[in-house]
User: What shape does this take?
Amino acid sequence: MNKKRAIILHTVIVFSFFLVFLRLADLMILNHERLSEKAERQQMKVEDIQVRRGMIVDRRGRDLALNLELESLYCDPKLFEFDKRKITKLAAVISKEPGTILSKIQTEGRFSWVERKLDPVKAKRVKELNIKGLGFLTEAKRFYPKEELASHVIGAVGIDNQSLEGIEMTYDRFLKTAGGKVFFRRDASGKTLSSGANMEVTGSNVVLTIDEVLQRIVEKELDLAMSKWSARSASAIMMDPFTGEILALANRPAYNPNEIGKASNYEKRNRAITDCYEPGSTFKTIIGVAALEEKIVRTDSLFDVSKGSIEVGGKTIRDVHKNEILTFKEVIQKSSNVGTIMMGMKLGKEKIYKYAKLFGIGEKTGIDLPGEVSGWILPSEKWSGTSIGAISIGQEVAVTPLQMLRVYSAIANGGFLVRPHVVSGIISSKGSMVFSFKQKDSTQVISSRTAEIFKEILKSVVEEGGTGVSAAVDGNWVAGKTGTAQLVNPETKRYSKEKYVSSFIGFVPADDPKLAIIVVIYEPKGQIYGGIVAAPVFREIARQTLSYLDVPIEDDFKPEQAFLVSR
Amino acid sequence: MIRMGNHESVWVSISKFFLIFLLIMCVFCLVYVRSSVVSLEYGLGELQSIKAERLKEQKMLLAEKTSLLSFGKLESALKEKDGFTMPDRIKVIHVDERRHHMPYRVSLQRGHLAEP
Assistant: This one.
């Protein structure tokens, strides 16, 4: 009996092992491939490597654009449980109508965004609501810590970090980088094991030529001028006249790039390079330089402007203030229309056109910012009978503030036309230099002798008797020129008697220029002249900048008599 | 005829026992090492997520610091609240060093140092 039982038990055990063996063979041999694939699918989790834009810093390494990690709220409509009370609370937290939230949730599929890039406080409050079916994903948000500062240079990005404006757009290919995917192992509870991979990649950093402090000085002074003169808009640029490095570039109105969606196109316009205006008297410099270069005049050449007006092509052009006989220098110093037109007529339209083109009028400067326009000047063969008079005094020609600043920089640096730029270098996320700006051999457009002579003439504009005395800076000689131009009334198609553009362009210290600055104020109220409206803005910007840059005082300062102890 | 003594069979038995013990120990060690690696991976995964959180906080704090230290905010705070002014290179103290005896003559304007 016992033996029989032993045989049965033995058979059952052997059979059981046989069944186990068969199952193992099924799992490990027959269905191995299918099951291992299934296991792989269950155990492996794929995640995108987070792509972050590179930072934008000023010339001294101060951050101007960086990234934040914010949480975005999404919904899985299949898991979502409608609770009116909670939805109302959610709507209050994220400042949206409950209907708007529900319209986003009631969509097909398993995923829909409810609100992107919530600030941490809001995200915490939403989490506390504990609404089933809502989840969070971390996303990078571009953050501009200086807000409006240099907004027209830096630009902005959209909700998906796509470039929209400024440097963000021009240097997008360097700032952004390619991502990729990382595979994680996870257990049955969904807990992930370390992949060991770097989950974040960052693009290259862009170093600007802009200086935050100088930019702030320029913007502060523009704001004051805007409010003082109730102007419609304003632009100012500060540039190193030898290298073409833009130290500051500002426009008013401006916008906060952190809230690009709220900014109007009017605010977003970088009018320093996208808006054309008639330069008015600041254009007389080109006529004067051309006349000197062509040896048509000498500094002591005399112009009889006592009549106070001149007729060109049947049109009479007058001086603002009546003068007697003026020297060439005085024509520029006093900004005589009649004297400059006489000079222009001596030069002839071909020469005027030639020098305008040599100075880059009607052509883009090539600045590394999007949207630059070329301005225009008609070819000399298309000029009307009055054109030679109008163009000589800066009418019938359209320029951008940057183009005019480049003209004056050429006089400041001895005759070379520089290429303005706002980026000095690009540094990879690992710290190696990817690109650094190298000024190509600049074209010499006028002789250094002419530039030197004209520098002296422009100095006289800021001295007693000149139109730009308000631009004079304590401690250094300033060279510059005022400009007042009428705007065209779009209704009458004639020059408006109320709307003007006031400007001042200059460089300082005149004999060893460190800065070239242009200030353009559009439609000031109360006063219109560049010498009254724009020149004081230049003075204030230059005064603070020279202090900041520690540019030594010149004039008659004698170091053997006194020295600086402290400040 | 060679006779094998009891002594030899004892050694064989010990060796067999030792080998089996070693084999079992190896299996246990393998299982132990494997489980340790998995625990380490879990630990690393957790550390990575903590690191990500900290980095997130660091980025937020850095952004806040940069924003607070912007020249515009510093300037307005120092000027309006504490009465500071920007350095002005014109406002310097001039000291007459031609006199070699104390006290030196000091003035905010160089012209004041001229001999009468």
Residues 2-30 of chain A form the longest helix (29 residues). Residues 557-567 of chain A have pLDDT under 50 and may be disordered.
